[in-house]
Design goal:
The protein is α/β, with parallel strands linked by helices. The protein contains twelve helices and twelve strands. Helix 1 crosses helix 2 (61-69) and helix 6 (183-192) runs parallel beside helix 7 (209-221). The protein starts with a strand and ends in a 5-residue tail after the last helix.
């Protein structure tokens, strides 16, 4: 099982000045987290893409390239690339270049985004939300799988046997689909035989199981081998030395990150009771002591058969030292145990699900 970290690059208001935190400082901090994750032996670093003033990163490939130059092993991926508003040709070129710079460590997680700013900025009609994504995904797959591309669609000029340079160092770029919990998105990933990343931002993790089972059922019915139908999971994350200490440290940042920033704006207020439930054994929030985090990741592995976990480690104005300490505990206390428990026979997602589905003796 792979473990890694994720940043969405949110910018919060500095209470002392009333202004947003500096995006240059924020971007450099994110680069330092990616380097620290590689030095600590984590498997994946993921970086989000947004197109509003509330976030620092609009093109993940650029900071990821900076991380690539100072690292040797960690895989580098977007989380997510907003494919609905991007040109698939340019997206593939950006990450193929990242793959060359990183010596074959680049990936793409493609998604649709719940933020409308990008659609307005790039002139995409939100009414075409699904059809544009499906068409651009089809083109991205064609570019990934063919050195010369012939393709026709409604939302972009056709390609007639054209090369799309540069080609990546890997045989082809790994492509995952990021989904937020809709059955149609999971079904698309399964039908195409693509690995799926499920973002859990709230609720009970057990409720995700029908969606995961549907993904794998559709994928296997389409003829894809079980080992191709990998599942990644992301959630808000913080690990501290003690359970109570970790939750007390995280709460103001978690609340700040999720609260509506404008009257009627997106987000919600998280009270103490809701926070305790979210951080509980089956809540989506991954926050607590190393042992609690280990237990929850292993619970998700047992319930859902996850192949990869990525914790969103910096949000709500968390100071850099707090993020760095969380990364260190993840790498030194959590990761070795999780790897040991999920390694070997019975540790893969299809073995786990087969064991769960086996009828219990009465």
């Amino acid at each position: 099982m792979e473990l890694g970290i994720l940043s969405l690059s949110d910018l919060q208001t500095d209470p002392s000045t009333g202004k947003l935190h500096n995006p240059a400082t924020r971007t450099r901090e994110i680069v330092s987290y990616g380097i620290a994750a590689d030095q600590a032996g984590l498997d994946v670093f993921a970086l989000g893409e947004h197109h509003s003033p509330d976030f620092a990163v609009a093109n993940p490939a650029v900071p990821l390239a900076a991380i690539a130059q100072a690292t040797t092993n960690i895989r580098l991926t977007s989380a997510v690339s907003v494919l609905s508003t991007l040109d698939p040709v340019r997206l593939h070129q950006d990450f193929a270049s990242l793959d060359l710079v990183s010596d074959g460590r680049a990936e793409i997680i493609a998604g649709r985004s719940a933020f409308l700013e990008a659609f307005t900025l790039f002139g995409i009609d939100p009414a075409d939300y699904d059809t544009v994504f499906a068409e651009k995904l089809d083109l991205l797959l064609a570019i990934r799988d063919n050195e010369h591309v012939t393709w026709t669609g409604r939302h972009r000029p056709a390609l007639d046997g054209l090369p799309v340079p540069p080609r990546p160092q890997q045989t082809r770029l790994p492509l995952w689909l990021g989904v937020g919990g809709t059955p149609a998105s999971a079904e698309r990933a399964g039908r195409l035989g693509l690995p799926m990343v499920l973002g859990l931002i709230g609720g009970d993790i057990r409720r995700a199981r029908p969606l995961v089972e549907h993904y794998r059922t559709v994928g296997q019915a389409a003829g894809h081998p079980a080992e191709a139908l990998k599942l990644g999971l992301t959630s808000h994350f913080y690990v501290g030395k003690t359970s109570q200490g970790a939750r007390e440290e995280l709460y103001p940042h978690y609340r700040e990150y999720l609260r509506p920033k404008t009257p009627g704006g997106r987000g919600w207020l998280v009270g103490p009771d809701e926070y305790r439930t979210a951080a509980g054994p089956f809540g989506a929030l991954m926050a607590g002591s190393p042992q609690e985090v280990i237990d929850k990741i292993l619970t998700e592995h047992e319930l859902l058969g996850i192949d990869r976990f990525m914790g969103q480690i910096d949000f709500g104005g968390m100071p850099a030292h707090m993020v760095s300490d969380s990364i260190e505990l993840l790498a030194t206390e959590v990761t070795p145990v999780v790897r040991q428990e999920t390694r070997g026979p019975g540790g893969s997602h299809h073995d786990v699900l087969a064991r769960i589905a086996k009828p219990k003796r009465k």
